[in-house]
Amino acid sequence: MKNIDVFLGKKGDDLKRIFIISDGTGQSAINLMRACLIQFEEQHVRLTVFSKVNTKEQIESILNQAREQKAFVAFTLVKKELRRYMHKLCHDYEIIHHDILGPPVEKLSNFLGAKPLENPNLLRRVDDKYFKRIEAIEFTINHDDGKNLKGLKEADIVILGLSRVSKTPTSFFLAQLGYKVVNIPIVPEIPLPKELFEIDQKKIVCLVMDPEVLQKVRMERMKHYKTTSNYTDLKRIFEELEFVYDLVKKNRQWHIVDTTNKSVEETAREIISCIYGREQELY
């Protein structure tokens, strides 16, 4: 059994205490509590998370603390026997409590006509997926727009592309699916980093867009800028795209995806299909 404290709002003597008790990591309960607490202004709360709780003795020890500290108790326990014991002690100790997992599992059991497996390891897998997605998002943020090439070999996908072809939005969407993404801008006058050619080349995707559509996108971006650059010049855009196509011809393991008039979701699915052979989620 482990326990950690998470403070929401300011620390102080007026903190309200919430105990989260779980036979997994407790992340699902934390997410629910945060979603609920955001509806209350100026609430200062200490969440104490007790994870990997799987015996009645542990439950009794925790609830004794909850009673002393007048805490609210929320719990996710997959075993019916432990849930019933938790309810009984909470009633005996007059502790305000909420069973997060029990009611929906029991209703689904009645609806499906099947008994739940009551395996806490299954819930941990869900929590593991959550943490892996968070890790992927943090990795992708840190490797946006070529600003950091450290860890390039750890990337699941490397996106190359000209300015405004949807590199960053696509990268972040893929990160939410659990993919670690690095995106690197292509500028004809600037050589691509040598590190790019030292990784698995099948993970590299070049994004392109119809020249006239790309011009409109860039013109929209430049409305608030005063500049005389050729950034929106159609001839220049044609030259940039030709440069990209030449790159792909020279690097035959690279993939190319056209983002013209596609949603980020469509582009992401196509990228996954190119690299991994079919649409899937890593985690």
From TrEMBL:
UniProt source species: Deferribacter desulfuricans (strain DSM 14783 / JCM 11476 / NBRC 101012 / SSM1)
GO terms for MF: ADP binding; ATP binding; phosphotransferase activity, phosphate group as acceptor; protein serine/threonine kinase activity
Record's catalysed reaction(s): N(tele)-phospho-L-histidyl/O-phospho-L-threonyl-[pyruvate, phosphate dikinase] + phosphate + H(+) = N(tele)-phospho-L-histidyl/L-threonyl-[pyruvate, phosphate dikinase] + diphosphate; N(tele)-phospho-L-histidyl/L-threonyl-[pyruvate, phosphate dikinase] + ADP = N(tele)-phospho-L-histidyl/O-phospho-L-threonyl-[pyruvate, phosphate dikinase] + AMP + H(+)
EC numbers: 2.7.11.32, 2.7.4.27
SUPFAM superfamilies: P-loop containing nucleoside triphosphate hydrolases
NCBIfam families assigned to the protein according to its UniProt record, in alphabetical order: PRK05339.1 (NF003742)
Spans traversing the lipid bilayer: none
Top-rank lineage group of the source organism: Bacteria
InterPro entries: Kinase-pyrophosphorylase (IPR005177), P-loop_NTPase (IPR027417), PPDK_reg (IPR026565)
Family: Belongs to the pyruvate, phosphate/water dikinase regulatory protein family. PDRP subfamily.
Job description of the protein: Bifunctional serine/threonine kinase and phosphorylase involved in the regulation of the pyruvate, phosphate dikinase (PPDK) by catalyzing its phosphorylation/dephosphorylation.
Binding residues annotated for ADP, in chain numbering: G161, L162, S163, R164, V165, S166, K167, T168
Key words of the record: Kinase, Nucleotide-binding, Serine/threonine-protein kinase, Transferase
Protein name as catalogued: Putative pyruvate, phosphate dikinase regulatory protein
